[in-house]
Amino acid sequence: MPVFPDLRMRRLRKSPALRSLVRESQLEPGDLIFPLFIVEGKGIKREIDAMAGIFHFSVDRLTAEVDELARLRVPAVLLFGVVDDKDETGSRALDPKGVVQLAIRAIKKAAPQMIVVTDICLCEYTSHGHCGVIVDGDVDNDATLPLLAKMALSHVSSGADMVAPSDMMDGRVKTIRKALDNNGFNNIPIMSYAAKYASAFYGPFREAAGSAPQFGDRKSYQMDPPNVREALREIEEDIKEGADIVMVKPALAYLDVISRARNSFNCPLAAYNVSGEYAMVKAAASRGWIDGKKITMEILGSIKRAGADIIISYHAKEAAAWLSEQA
Description:
Layout: H1 16-21, E1 32-39, E2 45-48, E3 51-58, H2 62-71, E4 76-82, H3 99-110, E5 115-120, E6 134-135, E7 138-139, H4 141-157, E8 162-165, H5 172-182, E9 191-196, H6 203-209, H7 229-241, E10 245-249, H8 255-264, E11 269-273, H9 275-286, H10 292-306, E12 310-313, H11 316-326
Parallel strand pairs: 1-3, 1-4, 1-12, 4-5, 5-8, 9-10, 10-11, 11-12
Antiparallel strand pairs: 2-3, 6-7
């Protein structure tokens, strides 16, 4: 191999065109999914305090948002429901006239081409804020599974294109896959939150979704942050159970996990650029400490470089707009 002065690595960095020509990973609007928080009521578009630029929407205010996303070539949204009337088992999650079910129908009517993905978890609907049924002070894994399957069926029956179980119960992918197949929805894909860590980066989301646990924490079912081999076991198991896409969450502090997953499994890989990661960028940018646009694109680029095919991000809309400007 040649060495300096014959080898000059800077030759291919001389201009934007050259840098683009040899760029090893490309971020595109089509890589992005934008999360939406759906609330009950009418005429609501309310900014979330901890997440500047992210809003609660009532169903009747969704059309304009979805139209803008489609114009920016963002291909998919991920829906979270926010309700006031909660109970021990999260029964509102199964309501065919619930906020997510109504939102699915509204989005598919307004923008049929938009991929609607729905979060499958009970935490936004339970009075205790945990992701499943509580028995003797702990989340009962097996008692939770049929409720998750019913929730997925309710969403798919309303027109959802994909379901994304985020609860981290053992066996939930297999249970949901069986329920979908037995009810004629064998073509509906599952995007599994396969390696979801018990992270401190979820704080702003819990404010947005009203899903903070009322006692204890989620460390008995979400993953321990120091572990990576365990993540690979979780991903492998979800693939065996029928997951079509697997996800690592969070993204920025877990780029090594994304990279290990990419090198270990030959299936579509998603990463969730979560609320705390988003909020830190927005807070620092608002103080003038960082260039928010440049930092955002560098972060999203790093997630893509690590191996993610799909990036779920609260930055998705603005990032797609910036990418369109560059095109």
